[in-house]
Write a structure and sequence with these properties.
Number of strands: 8
Low-confidence stretches: none
Radius of gyration: 15 Å
Strand order of the largest sheet: 1-4-3-2
Largest sheet: 4 strands, mixed
Helix content: 10-25%
Strand content: 25-35%
Length: 121
Protein backbone atom coordinates (compact mmCIF):
# COMPACT_ATOMS: atom_id res chain seq x y z
CA UNK A 1 0.00 0.00 0.00
CA UNK A 2 1.22 3.49 -0.84
CA UNK A 3 1.70 5.97 1.97
CA UNK A 4 -1.30 7.93 0.71
CA UNK A 5 -4.08 6.49 -1.45
CA UNK A 6 -7.24 8.02 -2.78
CA UNK A 7 -10.15 6.89 -0.63
CA UNK A 8 -13.31 8.48 -1.98
CA UNK A 9 -14.33 11.51 -4.01
CA UNK A 10 -17.24 13.30 -2.30
CA UNK A 11 -19.64 15.66 -4.02
CA UNK A 12 -21.76 18.23 -2.19
CA UNK A 13 -25.45 18.14 -3.07
CA UNK A 14 -28.91 18.86 -1.66
CA UNK A 15 -30.14 15.22 -1.70
CA UNK A 16 -27.37 12.62 -1.33
CA UNK A 17 -29.66 9.58 -1.58
CA UNK A 18 -31.08 10.56 -4.96
CA UNK A 19 -27.71 11.64 -6.38
CA UNK A 20 -26.14 8.36 -5.20
CA UNK A 21 -28.94 6.49 -6.95
CA UNK A 22 -28.31 8.50 -10.15
CA UNK A 23 -24.59 7.60 -10.25
CA UNK A 24 -25.25 4.00 -9.16
CA UNK A 25 -27.56 3.66 -12.18
CA UNK A 26 -25.08 5.40 -14.50
CA UNK A 27 -22.23 3.10 -13.47
CA UNK A 28 -24.09 -0.09 -12.57
CA UNK A 29 -22.73 0.14 -9.01
CA UNK A 30 -24.45 -0.23 -5.63
CA UNK A 31 -25.68 2.74 -3.57
CA UNK A 32 -25.97 2.86 0.18
CA UNK A 33 -25.86 5.19 3.12
CA UNK A 34 -28.06 7.15 5.44
CA UNK A 35 -28.78 10.67 6.53
CA UNK A 36 -26.46 13.21 4.96
CA UNK A 37 -23.87 10.76 3.53
CA UNK A 38 -24.34 8.18 0.75
CA UNK A 39 -21.82 6.28 -1.34
CA UNK A 40 -21.79 4.21 -4.49
CA UNK A 41 -19.35 1.31 -4.55
CA UNK A 42 -17.88 -0.35 -7.60
CA UNK A 43 -15.19 -2.85 -8.51
CA UNK A 44 -11.74 -2.81 -6.91
CA UNK A 45 -12.95 -0.63 -4.05
CA UNK A 46 -13.73 2.40 -6.19
CA UNK A 47 -16.23 4.72 -4.49
CA UNK A 48 -18.02 8.01 -4.97
CA UNK A 49 -19.65 9.75 -2.02
CA UNK A 50 -22.38 12.37 -1.76
CA UNK A 51 -22.86 14.65 1.22
CA UNK A 52 -25.81 16.88 1.97
CA UNK A 53 -25.07 20.59 2.11
CA UNK A 54 -27.64 23.15 3.20
CA UNK A 55 -28.18 26.01 0.78
CA UNK A 56 -26.33 24.09 -1.93
CA UNK A 57 -25.66 26.17 -5.05
CA UNK A 58 -24.96 24.14 -8.20
CA UNK A 59 -22.00 25.09 -10.39
CA UNK A 60 -22.73 27.37 -13.35
CA UNK A 61 -20.95 25.69 -16.25
CA UNK A 62 -19.29 27.01 -18.35
CA UNK A 63 -19.38 30.31 -16.47
CA UNK A 64 -17.49 30.87 -13.26
CA UNK A 65 -20.07 32.75 -11.17
CA UNK A 66 -20.30 29.53 -9.15
CA UNK A 67 -17.25 27.47 -10.27
CA UNK A 68 -17.53 23.75 -10.95
CA UNK A 69 -14.65 22.95 -8.56
CA UNK A 70 -14.48 19.43 -9.97
CA UNK A 71 -16.10 17.30 -12.60
CA UNK A 72 -16.22 13.60 -13.40
CA UNK A 73 -15.15 12.05 -16.70
CA UNK A 74 -16.61 8.68 -17.70
CA UNK A 75 -15.03 6.70 -20.54
CA UNK A 76 -17.34 5.31 -23.22
CA UNK A 77 -16.49 3.45 -26.44
CA UNK A 78 -17.14 5.83 -29.36
CA UNK A 79 -19.51 3.29 -30.91
CA UNK A 80 -21.61 3.36 -27.71
CA UNK A 81 -21.81 7.13 -27.14
CA UNK A 82 -25.43 7.49 -28.29
CA UNK A 83 -26.59 4.62 -26.07
CA UNK A 84 -24.63 6.03 -23.12
CA UNK A 85 -26.11 9.46 -23.71
CA UNK A 86 -29.66 8.10 -23.78
CA UNK A 87 -28.96 6.27 -20.54
CA UNK A 88 -27.75 9.34 -18.62
CA UNK A 89 -30.49 11.55 -20.07
CA UNK A 90 -33.09 8.96 -19.10
CA UNK A 91 -31.73 8.99 -15.56
CA UNK A 92 -32.13 12.76 -15.28
CA UNK A 93 -28.93 14.29 -16.67
CA UNK A 94 -29.07 17.34 -18.92
CA UNK A 95 -26.87 17.71 -22.02
CA UNK A 96 -25.19 21.13 -21.95
CA UNK A 97 -22.43 20.84 -24.57
CA UNK A 98 -21.92 18.72 -27.66
CA UNK A 99 -19.64 19.80 -30.49
CA UNK A 100 -21.18 17.52 -33.17
CA UNK A 101 -18.21 15.20 -33.70
CA UNK A 102 -15.49 17.86 -33.49
CA UNK A 103 -14.52 16.83 -29.96
CA UNK A 104 -14.35 13.46 -28.25
CA UNK A 105 -16.51 14.33 -25.24
CA UNK A 106 -19.95 15.66 -24.30
CA UNK A 107 -20.78 17.65 -21.17
CA UNK A 108 -23.83 17.01 -18.99
CA UNK A 109 -25.19 18.20 -15.66
CA UNK A 110 -26.27 15.60 -13.11
CA UNK A 111 -29.59 16.11 -11.28
CA UNK A 112 -27.85 18.30 -8.66
CA UNK A 113 -26.12 20.44 -11.31
CA UNK A 114 -22.58 18.98 -11.21
CA UNK A 115 -20.93 18.86 -14.65
CA UNK A 116 -19.71 15.49 -15.92
CA UNK A 117 -18.46 14.27 -19.27
CA UNK A 118 -18.91 11.19 -21.39
CA UNK A 119 -15.51 10.81 -23.08
CA UNK A 120 -15.24 8.69 -26.22
CA UNK A 121 -12.37 6.20 -26.23
Amino acid sequence: MALIELGVVALDCPDPASLADFYADVLGWQAGGEGDWYEVAGPAGRRLAFQQVENYQPPRWPGQEVPQQLHLDFDVRAADIEEAEQKVLGLGAKLVWHDEGKRDFRVYLDPAGHPFCLCMK
